[in-house]
């Protein structure tokens, strides 16, 4: 028997995050539980323990297949094809021939206190539930992705589990955001919160499933400015613009940079100087302030019967310049999908603002102010995550500070 939690690979961190504690045993390959213990969870490891990408529930062929085929239309073509092939094979019960992982607990304890799937089934009042778990490379920024299915293979929720300081904060932030978001015409369709709580040093949120026939957005370069603006205005009317100088937003940027510097983050001195430069350069620029999704990117958006669907609201915030989501969409799409460095991603964000910014009421001067403020906001987010124990995102640090300094030094 081997306990995968001892490993440094993706399977290791996922199992440590989900099945922590000496009173929980995890084994690959599966074996009968020791005397005084009982098995509460069994998963197929795909394709094997050394290259694990999925932990699939093997309660029945129907549940295994559903865990691979649900929401497959959202995935990129190569992954979609792989999951379709695996899901088709799973319908025959083929998953039971794969390497197995078992989770066991002492026979005399309540499984709801030790096994997260049983805990969530109890909190959701859902009866029996089974979990499918994605396995990604180890990263302190990542949270386990847990899809919950009933015995009929119907999705019942999507669980996010914060397991360290950084990820616990993100789960709690999304919980608060989902509780406060509006709904109605013009606003994106938002999967709502089903459960939130703390369990065994974990922060957990369960989001309701996406619509069964949700589809990926047809154009990854379309930021959906109408819905983006509805988010920025929180489904309300436009608000009067304010000069950037003296706004609570700019004061917060400067204060946060100062906090980072006082806490021993030496690069934050550059952020403090950048905040002052933003005030001096753009202080008289009038901007509308509102909300932002915080991670408005193609992979967090879909369509359902002609309506935009938006999920992953863990970075949602208020009192930011309208246009932040537009800048983020252009920047992150270039950085992640095109694989360009931060400087080129900044140019892509500038191009997005030039194309769509007038629809948000942004002229050329406001577009540049929004982008430069966004770059500092994004660096401060990067610092927050690093300070919470997740380490620096090397795609963004120190490059964002370099790009921002260069932009602020030139007309």
Question: How do the helices and strands line up, and which of them pair or pack?
Answer:
Blueprint (H helix, E strand, L loop, with lengths): L9 H9 L6 E3 L9 E10 L7 E4 L3 H9 L7 H14 L9 E7 L9 H9 L5 E5 L10 E5 L5 E8 L2 H16 L12 E7 L2 E6 L7 E2 L8 H8 L9 E2 L4 H15 L5 H15 L3 E2 L1 E4 L8 E4 L2 E4 L6 E5 L2 H14 L4 H15 L7 H27 L8 H11 L2
Antiparallel strand pairs: 1-4, 2-3, 2-4, 3-5, 5-6, 6-7, 7-9, 8-9, 10-14, 11-12, 13-16, 14-15
Helix pairs in contact: 2-3, 7-8, 7-11, 8-11, 8-12, 9-10, 10-11, 11-12
What does this structure look like?
With 411 residues, this protein is of the alpha+beta class. The protein has two domains: 4-163, no CATH class; 216-409, Aminoglycoside 3'-phosphotransferase, Chain: A, domain 2, CATH 3.90.1200. Helices cover 39% and strands 19% of the residues. The protein has helices spanning 10-18, 61-69, 77-90, 116-124, 165-180, 225-232, 248-262, 268-282, 324-337, 342-356, 364-390, 399-409, and strands spanning 25-27, 37-46, 54-57, 100-106, 130-134, 145-149, 155-162, 193-199, 202-207, 215-216, 242-243, 286-287, 289-292, 301-304, 307-310, 317-321. The chain has a nine-stranded antiparallel sheet. Helix 8 packs antiparallel against helix 11 (364-390), helix 10 packs across helix 11 and helix 11 (364-390) runs antiparallel to helix 12. The longest helix is centred in the C-terminal third of the chain and has 27 residues, at 364-390. The protein is globular, with a radius of gyration of 23 Å.
């Amino acid at each position: 028997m081997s306990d995968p939690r001892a490993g440094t690979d993706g399977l290791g961190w996922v199992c440590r995050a989900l099945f922590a504690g000496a009173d929980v045993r995890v084994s690959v390959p599966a074996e009968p539980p020791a005397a005084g213990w009982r098995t509460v969870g069994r998963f197929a490891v795909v394709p094997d323990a050394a290259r694990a990408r999925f932990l699939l529930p093997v309660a029945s062929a129907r549940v295994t297949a559903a865990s691979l085929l649900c929401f497959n239309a959202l995935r990129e073509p190569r992954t979609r094809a792989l999951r379709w092939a695996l899901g088709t094979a799973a319908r025959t019960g083929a998953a039971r021939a794969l390497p197995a992982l078992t989770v066991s607990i002492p026979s005399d304890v309540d499984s709801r206190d030790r096994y997260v799937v049983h805990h969530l089934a109890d909190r959701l009042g859902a009866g029996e539930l089974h979990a499918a778990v994605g396995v990604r490379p180890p990263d302190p920024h990542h949270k386990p992705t847990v899809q919950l299915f009933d015995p009929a293979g119907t999705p019942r929720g999507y669980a996010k589990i914060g397991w360290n300081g950084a990820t616990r904060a993100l789960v709690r932030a999304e919980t608060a955001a989902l509780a406060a978001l509006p709904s109605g015409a013009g606003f994106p369709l938002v999967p709502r919160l089903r459960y939130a709580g703390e369990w065994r040093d974990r922060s957990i949120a369960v989001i309701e499933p996406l619509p069964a026939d949700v589809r990926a957005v047809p154009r990854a370069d379309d930021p959906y400015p109408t819905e983006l603006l509805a988010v920025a205005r929180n489904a309300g009317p436009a608000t009067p613009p304010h000069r950037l100088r003296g706004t609570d937003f700019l004061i917060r940027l400067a204060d946060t940079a100062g906090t980072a510097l006082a806490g021993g983050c030496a690069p934050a001195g550059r952020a403090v100087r950048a905040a002052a430069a933003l005030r001096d350069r753009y202080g008289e620029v009038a901007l509308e302030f509102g909300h932002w999704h915080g991670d408005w990117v193609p992979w967090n958006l879909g369509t359902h019967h002609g309506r935009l669907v938006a999920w992953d609201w863990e970075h949602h915030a208020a009192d930011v310049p309208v246009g932040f989501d537009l800048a983020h969409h252009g920047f992150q799409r270039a950085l992640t999908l095109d694989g360009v460095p931060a400087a080129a991603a900044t140019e892509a964000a500038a191009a997005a603002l030039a194309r769509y910014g007038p629809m948000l009421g942004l002229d050329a001067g406001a577009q540049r102010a929004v982008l430069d403020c966004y770059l500092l906001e994004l660096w401060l987010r990067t610092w927050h995550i690093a300070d919470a124990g997740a380490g620096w995102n090397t795609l963004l640090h120190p490059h964002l500070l370099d790009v921002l300094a260069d932009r602020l030094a030139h007309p």
